[in-house]
Design a protein that fits this description.
This protein is mainly alpha-helical. It is built from 16 helices and 6 strands. The radius of gyration is 33 Å and the shape is elongated. The protein starts with a helix and ends in a 6-residue tail after the last helix.
Length: 416
């Protein structure tokens, strides 16, 4: 046993896959301790908040200000507030006014504003220009002048007696607040999803659920496939014919289509994670059965098996003590592949809306389904789906890498 484990952990492929998988498991265990709470809690009001640190604006106005005169603060402020649409509109006005912009770089904020301030005339109107367009350029100019000249933001509150706004304070553009002095600060490494939920917290919870589904589906599929394969391969005869007939029938029917039909027939309220995992396992045992059967057929006439027969040992004892140990490594490899395929199958049916019910626990497939339904891939909200895709790929890659490493250890033809 020690020698076998030594050989396994000397396989670079197995070790690589094992390290990746353990790292994912550690993230799944440790992160909830650092950031506890319900992964389905809706903390955001607007959908798809970008990754970053969010500071309560209300609390920031109550915090102590520190004056700082940063030389590039105004330039950064103008670069950030002057949107791409505003820049395009300014170029459009220059074209209409026949202003030479041949050497102008639209991304050069200083040059763009200087040219605008030198040439813009509110009274200018090209023949055929609509009033709405004229007003649009005027509003744009007012916005630009406000950005350039505004130094103070006035804070006001409603007087309870008069109902009028009264000034309560001022914020200068040179005032800065230490983030640590703001009471409510929220760090969202992966932003929020379409429901305003913390994507990283949701992702970590989904990893655990999907791995659990894969393990349960792998156990069901491997147990069925192993049992039928052992009986079919060792007993033979009519038992072999019946088992292989059923196996061939299920092989002809695409397992994914069968999976869709079964899950569709189960109401969403009854489709928990365990139910989905069981259904996946019940539709993916056929190749394990055929593979185990072929292995058993090659073993059933070995000397030690014939000796057990002559000794009068029972069928279960011969299978469990004289055959199963010799294919145990193959069964472990089959189980790893079944776990991987179970995780992928859950992701596939969940993207079709046939996964576990959405109100209980998140899964990797459900997160992809939510991102797809709310068009995260078209509105630029990459954080809602790309980490999920990367996680599914890493889990599948690590399991298949471990399986390849085991195959190299236990299969003599693949050894160096």
């Amino acid at each position: 046993m020690k020698n076998t484990l030594r050989q396994i952990f000397h396989s670079p492929k197995f070790v690589g896959g094992f390290v990746i998988f353990v790292a994912i498991l550690l993230l799944m265990i440790i992160y909830p301790l650092i950031n506890p709470g319900d992964p389905l809690e809706m903390i955001g009001v607007n959908t798809f908040a970008k990754p970053g640190t969010y500071v309560s604006l209300y609390d920031a106005t109550k915090a102590k200000y520190e004056p700082m005169r940063l030389t590039d603060a105004d330039d950064k402020r103008l670069d950030a507030y002057l949107s791409a649409e505003d820049r395009v509109a300014m170029i459009e006005w220059f074209d209409l006014a026949s202003v030479d912009i041949s050497n102008l770089d639209m991304e050069d904020t200083d040059a763009l504003l200087e040219l605008w301030n030198d040439n813009y005339d509110p009274a200018f109107k090209v023949k055929g220009m609509t009033k709405a367009k004229v007003n649009y350029f005027r509003r744009l100019n007012n916005s630009i002048q406000e950005l350039q000249s505004a130094d103070i933001i006035v804070l006001a509150d409603t007087n309870e007696e008069t109902g009028e706004l009264e000034e309560t304070g001022q914020v200068n553009k040179t005032d800065y607040v230490n983030v640590n002095s703001v009471v409510n600060v929220k760090f969202l490494p992966l932003g929020t999803d379409n429901f305003g939920r913390d994507v990283l917290k949701e992702l970590v919870s989904a990893i655990g659920t999907s791995i659990m589904i894969g393990l349960l589906a792998g156990c069901v599929a491997t147990l069925i496939g192993l049992t039928l394969g052992l009986l079919s391969g060792y007993v033979g005869g009519i038992v072999d014919d019946i088992i292989m007939f059923v196996t061939n029938v299920f092989t002809v029917i695409p397992s994914f289509v069968l999976l869709i039909l079964i899950t569709y027939s189960i109401s969403q309220e009854q489709r928990g994670a365990a139910v989905v995992a069981t259904v996946i396992g019940l539709t993916s045992w056929t190749w394990t059965t055929r593979s185990v059967r072929s292995q058993v057929i090659s073993l059933r006439n070995r000397d030690h098996v014939n000796l057990s027969k002559l000794s009068g040992h029972s069928l279960p004892r011969i299978i469990l003590t004289d055959i199963l140990p010799y294919i145990a490594s193959y069964v472990v490899m089959a189980f790893i592949l079944q776990v991987s395929s179970g995780i992928l199958a859950e992701a596939q049916i969940s993207m079709l809306g046939l996964g576990p019910k959405m109100t209980e626990v998140p899964t990797l497939g459900l997160m992809m389904n939510w991102a797809m339904l709310y068009s995260a891939h078209t509105n630029g909200s990459w954080w809602a789906y790309f980490p999920v895709i990367l996680t599914i790929a890493l889990i599948s890659f690590s399991l298949n890498l471990m399986n390849t490493g085991l195959d190299q250890v236990f299969n003599p033809t693949l050894r160096d």
